[in-house]
Amino acid sequence: MRMPTPLDICFLAISAFLFIMYIFFLITLVVYRWSQPFRSVFFSLTLALGVVDVLQMFHTYLLLKFPSFGWMTNSLYLNLPQSVVKYGSCALWALAFNQHIAVFIIAVNRFSAIVVPHGHNSRWSPFATRVANFLICFSGVFFVLPKIVYNSSIKYEIVDNVTMSATIVWGNQQLLEKYKYVSICLNLIVNMGCFVMYMTILCVAVRRHHGTLRAKVSINRKNTANPPDAMVIYHQI
User: Which InterPro entries does the UniProt record give (predicted)?
Assistant: First the structure.
């Protein structure tokens, strides 16, 4: 087994610290979920995304990062049952899909709240929120169904005999290529959609801010141009 380098240790230490901070953030959302502003739909969606993120980080380090470092390759990863390796591979793809869906749904929620606020609460009813959370948590299962059915051979293979680095290898390479193309398309759609929505949010926020400033300046100018009558002030005193 390859010993961890100082860079590996530094990387893992930073990752562990950020992971713990993220856990505390999610705990805060859970503890105060019935208090404002944490009881809003946005924080409900954020909590669902946070759970998916934590699961993805856990699976990524346990099933990809550690074997890529060459840690416990011969003693553990090469001896794992194929069912465990298949579960890990499917979980990684499913959770990644869930993350994409979550990011897009949260962007839609923010777009609805800021750009078209009229009717926002009715659009994001409790039922709609439950549907959105269901998609965030479980849509990845449907995404990996072809992988579960048609990709029977999945195993770890050593890719570097010096470092003993290993990775998960699909038996059905044609299916892997299709998943790669679908993932690229999904990334483009989600990224472009989120970019357009958040840029629209930014433009609307800036326009509203400038409108508020112009209104304040106009009021100040009117007050300066039309000062109160001195006799009225004297009478009030």
Answer: 7TM_GPCR_serpentine_rcpt_Srv
Kindly compute the dihedral angle of the four CA atoms of residues 112, 115, 121, 123, in this order, to the nearest 10 degrees.
-40
Give percent helix, percent strand, percent coil of the chain, each to the nearest 5: 75, 5, 20
Burial of 132: CB neighbours in 10 Å, binned 0-12, 13-18, 19+: buried
214: region left, alpha or beta (phi > 0 left; psi from -120 to 50 alpha): alpha
In angstroms, the CA 110 to CA 116 distance is 9
Total number of domains in the chain: 1
Range of the domain at 70: 6-212
Q: Which of 135, 108, 131 is nearest to 49 (CA)?
A: 135
Specify the pTM. 0.83
Residue 139 CB neighbours (<10 A)? 16
Q: Which helix H or strand E contains 161, and what residues bound it? A: none
Domain membership of residue 235 (yes or no) is: no
Query: What is the rounded CA–CA span in Å between residue 111 and residue 102?
Result: 14
What number of H helices and E strands is found in the chain? Answer: 9, 2
Q: What is the secondary structure of 65-110 as a DSSP string?
A: IHHHTTTTTTTTGGGS-HHHHHHHHHHHHHHHHHHHHHHHHHHHHH
pLDDT, one tens digit per residue, over 24-71 is: 999 999 998 888 888 899 999 999 999 999 999 999 988 988 888 888
The answer to whether residue 86 sits within a structural domain is yes
